[in-house]
Design brief:
Radius of gyration of chain A: 19 Å
Largest interface: A-B, 70 and 73 residues
Strand content of chain A: 15-25%
Number of strands of chain A: 11
Largest sheet of chain A: 3 strands, antiparallel
Number of domains of chain A: 2
Oligomer: homodimer
Shape of chain A: globular
Helix content of chain A: 40-55%
Structural class of chain A: alpha+beta
DNA sequence: TTCATAGTTCGATGATAGCCGAAGCATCGA
DNA sequence: TCGATGCTTCGGCTATCATCGAACTATGAA
């Protein structure tokens, strides 16, 4: 028996399916209202209120009052990091949630994972980048090559050297749950996603809280030209 | 309701106090028998057996049969990483375990966290570096100063400019659970640890899987000269 | 003021899951 | 072969906690 932070209390908070759904819904970084979170978790507002109070007391989420709404967001990127870590472990153990309701092909195809592109297209992009030797990935490391830097600058006007960040790696392999393979996270992953948005190749779905990313017809073509299966 | 890795199942495993005690006991990297873990968690062997089966099914621990004993260890450094992350969040929220009795003082004093120094000495080092203005840390950022670069080059023959890595920041503040304060991670943290090893100031404990770091008498003196409380 | 919406508090209920005693395997030593 | 030890399975007890209906507070709109 050792002294230390009481992990189990925090973990128990995440351990309830309803609360976990709420947290997962917040992983895209946006703040959601209590009602939205209740719906997301499939529970009544009363129950949600109780859960939200517990999550707040546990330091996992922070409220922000705005009019008669109460917006909640994850306290901290560290919280999102732990949740991602749990996702990785769960995926490896083969514990996937059973899909209920209509399966959402749009969500499988392209969605936001925190701030970068995930889903079929996200995985496809990283695959293509490796095939084109823009990114080199070994078992332990993943990094942008010289070719990759040039490519980012010429094709997408992204200055890779400007992406270094003290608390975040430029490239990070993020396990994609729908594909069970990696897609690209890190500051480069985020930069790519925001460039796609700026170029109006893609936009986040208008539905509040949705993580779906819709590509325009033109955007899909330009994306395929750079990162298509034959590129 | 979305599909995805079932975080809540994994989190619920950690969320039970008894199981959490077991996992914490395994965090030093050593493998323990079922009985030892039962005692560690303060429960009977029957109950422990049930918990261990669940943890194994959840992919958090792995058994190794040896005679009539069954040794368990954490599946993976990733698991330890998630546990450390949870510890950080719990510590920040002020949720500390009440049970005291520092069973492994060596682990508290100096241990490996991934590839860098953690524990009392790790925290002390970062503190000292900030006091000497080798590192500047704001709420959001942490970076090496000019003085810091010179110090690294002159005192430890570490070329800070060579430490830039596409996937990893040079400096990163990592929350230390035993001290509830930050220690230094990132490529610089790793470089320092490997330099200490090269200089034979410190070595990882010989026990397989152990995370304890043992400083030599001379190493401790040299370390204190650079990063001591009065330096 | 009056109504509507967002959110919370309270109390009762019911299911889940941790817990242990007892008994059952499996392995080791003699 | 026998007994001792380590561990697991089974069954029943109990406590916890998620859940919802109903009632309450607070903000905003008409």
């Amino acid at each position: 028996m050792k002294a230390g932070p009481d992990i189990s209390r925090v973990a128990a908070l995440v351990g309830d399916p309803a609360r976990c759904n709420m947290l997962t819904a917040l992983m895209n970084g946006r703040a959601l209202t209590a009602s939205e979170l209740a719906q997301e978790a499939g529970i009544t507002p009363q129950t949600a209120s109780s859960h939200l109070a517990k999550l707040e007391a546990g330091g996992l989420i922070e409220p922000e009052k705005q009019g008669r709404h109460r917006y909640y967001r994850l306290t901290d990127p560290d919280v999102a990091g732990v949740l991602e870590g749990l996702q990785g472990i769960a995926a490896r153990a083969g514990h996937m949630r059973v899909r209920t309701g209509p399966k959402d092909p749009a969500l499988r195809r392209a969605r936001i994972c925190y701030d970068h592109l995930a889903g079929d297209l996200g995985v496809q992009m990283l695959d293509s980048m490796k095939r084109q030797r823009l990114i080199r990935q070994t078992k332990q490391t993943i990094e942008l090559t010289g070719d990759g830097k040039r490519f980012m600058a010429e094709e997408l006007q992204i200055d890779a050297d400007a992406l270094t960040h003290p608390r975040r790696p430029v490239c990070k392999a993020c396990l994609d749950w729908s594909e069970r393979r990696h897609h690209l996270a890190g500051t480069l992953g985020a930069a790519l996603m925001s460039r796609f948005t700026e170029l109006k190749w893609a936009a986040r779905d208008a539905t509040p809280g949705s993580r779906v990313v819709n590509f325009t017809r033109n955007g899909e073509k330009r994306f395929a030209a750079l990162f298509g299966a034959d590129a």
